[in-house]
Write a structure and sequence with these properties.
Elements lengths: L20 H22 L2 E2 L1 H4 L1 E8 L6 H9 L6 E5 L5 E7 L5 H15 L3 E9 L1 H29 L2 H25 L2 E2 L1 H31 L5 H33 L2 H28 L19 H10 L3
Parallel strand pairs: 1-6
Antiparallel strand pairs: 2-4, 2-5, 3-4
Helix pairs in contact: 1-6, 1-9, 5-6, 5-7, 6-7, 6-9, 7-8, 7-9, 8-9, 8-10
Length: about 325
């Protein structure tokens, strides 16, 4: 049986991305500025992880816990935001309730309400009150994790390519992270530790796409030593465009399925990832690579005699100018 390769777009496209770079840069600048403004004006709708509240770990002694019934029962108590998360065994559930107005007595009353609602059949393994100080530490730890991830990526790209590539990658990643925060500030979806995990995952996914294109740029710099640099960047983007779009599309299919059928617990995570895949693919193609044009990349840093000039490819790159 013969299998044919699946492609969303032809393998040999001739799109002149570099000619449209000013439009991309203006759009991205507006997106980043809008995101920062939305964050300054609206702020984020922080989840219990960052606001503080009550955490109760229970085990259903009768078997797997019925999360939907628990969510409905506890949601009807009027205690505000209630989050349930299954972890470890199917019978283990972590219940998180927003901080109640008042002192410790009000928190204890809320715990009592939860216990009376759940009734018999539950083993209460842990009850904790997460105060503002712990929540602040979690928030700053989350920011620190994002900053360290971006710094680590910068160092990795610097060593693997040249520092100019690292700067291009960090510009694209910062663009993705800031726009994701701006989206959450706009729609006021809950921003919690799962969202921070999604932002880190977005950074990892986006850098993977960017490195694929950078690899092709480096390969083409070795092959076509006299080709105009903007033509070479265009050629590299078009060479990898089919792979990039197909990978992003298949990833999106899985994330949309998770968003629709994955349940309440991972919905915010899946939503952030869907946005991150779209904006990460865009930034890898339209921001990270065109930015190299302004960083005076040293072509002799990738000197190699192992590949000859390819006149056909140079001619193809020249055709891109008219696309």
């Amino acid at each position: 049986m013969k299998f044919f390769p699946v492609r969303l777009i032809p393998a040999t496209t001739k799109i002149d991305f570099l000619r449209r770079r000013t439009v991309f840069f203006i759009f991205s600048a507006l997106l980043v500025l809008s995101s920062l403004s939305l964050y300054a004006i609206n702020g984020l709708s922080y989840g219990i992880d960052f606001k503080g509240g009550i955490m109760i770990e229970v085990r259903d002694t009768r078997g797997p816990a019925d999360i939907s019934k628990l969510r409905n029962d506890l949601g009807a108590l009027g205690l505000g935001e209630v989050s349930l998360q299954e972890f470890g065994e199917p019978s283990d559930v972590l219940i998180r309730i927003q901080k109640q107005e008042g002192d410790e007595t009000a928190q204890n009353v809320a715990v009592g309400l939860v216990k009376s609602t759940l009734g018999e059949g539950y083993d209460y393994r842990r009850t904790e009150f997460v105060g503002p100080k712990v929540s602040d530490e979690l928030f700053w730890d989350g920011l620190m994790a994002i900053a360290l991830a971006l710094g680590g990526i910068l160092v990795y790209i610097w060593f693997r390519f040249e520092w100019q590539f690292g700067i291009g990658a960090i510009i694209a990643l910062s663009h993705d992270v800031i726009s994701t925060i701006g989206l959450f500030a706009l729609i006021q979806h809950e921003f919690n530790l799962a969202t921070v995990a999604a932002v880190l995952t977005i950074a990892g996914y986006s850098i993977n796409d960017t490195v694929v294109v950078f690899d092709r740029v480096r390969e083409n710099m070795r092959k076509y030593k006299t080709m105009d640099f903007s033509d070479l960047l265009n050629l590299s983007i078009n060479d990898t465009l089919s792979r990039t779009t197909l990978t992003s599309f298949t990833t999106l299919l899985a994330l949309v399925a998770l968003y629709i059928f994955g349940g309440e617990i991972i919905r915010d995570f899946a939503f952030a990832m869907i946005w991150g895949i779209v904006i990460g693919t865009y930034s890898s193609i339209c921001v990270a690579v065109p930015a190299l044009l302004y960083f005076n990349v040293r072509r002799d840093g990738f000197d190699s005699n192992d590949e000859p000039q390819d006149d056909a490819a140079i001619a193809r790159a020249n055709v891109n100018k008219g696309a």
